[in-house]
Amino acid sequence: MSASRSERTVVLGAGLMGRLLACELARSGHAVDVYDAGTAEAPGSAAHVAAAMLAPLAESAVTELGVVRMGSHALVRWPELIATLGQPVFFQQQGTLVLWHRQDAAEATRFQQLLAATARDMPQLPGLQVLDGSGVARLEPAIGERFAQGLYLPGEGQLDNRELLSALLHRLQSLGAAVHWNSPRAPADFDERYGGWLFDCRGLGARTDWQALRGVRGEVVRLHAPEVTLTRPTRLLHPRYPLYIAPKPGGVFVIGATEIESDDLSPASVRSTLELLSAAYTVHPGFAEGRVIELCSQCRPTLHDNLPALRWLGARRLQINGLYRHGFLIAPAMLDVVMECISQGRSALAERFALRVETLPG
Question: What pTM does this model have?
Fold first, then answer.
């Protein structure tokens, strides 16, 4: 299954995973063609809308250890990958701040217990720190002592998703890859006469070929609030709609919470929008004077167990999918696994991450 240099290679899908993989293949000397059903801006794609938080310990409350290990791997790999792109991409590792209101103390206790269990299994992760009100104020003076308690997860980070997507595309084009927009393709469009490598990274676009895929809807508000000076991703615990606030360059904040078992891509609901904005206001009243730049809805490609997977369609055909809500957190690990698979026929990293690698029967 090893891949040779200058071999013809097709990547289906130009989202985060498709661009990242296509760049690495082109950098390695492959002649790459990328096909995508949409445009370069991909305004409705999961990668375009996402907050791009890199929070393995925080996410351990809702996912498996394999994903946490992939996220820990990504915190090392993202700076290395960004350094090859030739364009600036915002990236920081100032940790995650977790807050809650007094009435949600039980949810905070449950969350802390889940993180403590992860810390026991992965002692290499920076340990969480329990904060009192003055500790919260020291980390984020803009919040003051509005919260009596909090948690700080050092070392976690974030990047700017849109800067990254743009830089990946620029790098891909500079490497000589051909990108075909408004050109939907499926593996069946490349028959046995094609002969080269094919990687299917279409996300939900691959549902006709991977029937276990489903969409999980999210709704996100992007605000311009330059008077709000939060410096790190902040999560507000709530038993029904845990909120995240991710600061971006230029006084922009991405605020989101909802996960709805639906592939409905209609505009965001009034109720969800009110809940998001009201919860953000309780964290910092300066959000009341912010300006709504975008109100977005999108669907994340998800498999039955909410975990990513690879699937061999043939000796030179590999599907990569199911990144769910963890796309930016796990994409570098998925990339490194794929590159091991095509060069060695197997991946030690996949075993380390407990990543499912399937082969179709027959």
Answer: 0.95
